[in-house]
Amino acid sequence: MSSTTGSRIVVTGATGNVGTSVVRLLSEDPEVGSVVGLARRAPQWSPPKTEWVAVDLSDEETDLAAEFAGASAVVHLAWAFQPTHDPAVTWRTNVLGSIRVFEAVAAAKVPTLVHTSSVGAYSPGPKDEAVDESWPTHGWPDAAYCREKAYLERALDTFERDHPDVRVVRMRPAFLFKRESASEQRRIFGGRFLPGPLIRPELLPFLPDIPGLRVQALHTDDAAKAYRLALHSEARGAFNLAAEPPVDAELLGELLGARRVRLPRTAARSAIAAAWNLHLLPASPHLFDAVLRLPLMDCTRARTELRWRPEHTANEVLEEFLKGLQQGAGADTEPMRGRKAG
Predict the structure, then answer these.
(1) What is the four-CA torsion angle of 155, 157, 161, 164, rounded to 10 degrees?
(2) How many Å apart are CA 233 and CA 254, to the nearest integer?
(3) For position 267, what pLDDT does the model report?
(4) In angstroms, rounded to a whole number, what is the distance separating the alpha carbons of residues 37 and 61?
């Protein structure tokens, strides 16, 4: 049994898509003594043996080491996706805030750090075969999300060199969805004026088939199970996390019952860029460029070393998420609140 038995686990970004799944799973785990959820706004949600602390990682005055004192592990999930028009703001939270987390882990002598990286950290790669965790992690430099994830991979390289006594696990999940995250992700990527109820098969005349748009998805709860397994093991290093099959226009067309229409990359990018420049769409054209270049991930290491298996197929993940969009689904935390329209 690992050292996390009966332990105190601190989770940053505990009220978001991944955080709510991780906190819920750990709060139900008899091998975990207590969970401390850090978030900018403490929620009304009260899972068992969980306490909340309001913390803003972008605030340099925050004493994170004090919050981490006595913890057996820190699970670092906090991340800001917006504003996409001002990358200096996300850099302060995502990169500088994460570095403060790493430094506080060392200062508080926390033995285990589980960090959320991403498929977005990977350099451009193949869409017809899967790559393992040794694939370069230099990201797509034009996209802030990928740039920040890749930078933190280098920061962790240095951290591991300087603090070999800390067990560092890097999770690199595919795109994460669940029913409760639907409203949050609609606001983050589609904008608050995109009405979820209109995302219905019968209202889609056709589905754009864009060359290179082939990615992987994963249910957020399945990702949370990998985090739990990592906490209860002695595993170190990076783990790819994704469900099968890969998601492309053919799969989406079958799921939605929509006719596929070939759309050139340039036309799709121009439309996204125009909407983004007019502040009508939060997702930037740079992120679109990155998605077209992300490699498919091989998850053999997570299956063999963590004994991890996703319970949901990618088809099931997307079906659940689409229903959540239509219903305005959410959860009882500020980032995850449910709303059908803007």
Answers:
(1) 100
(2) 39
(3) 93
(4) 19
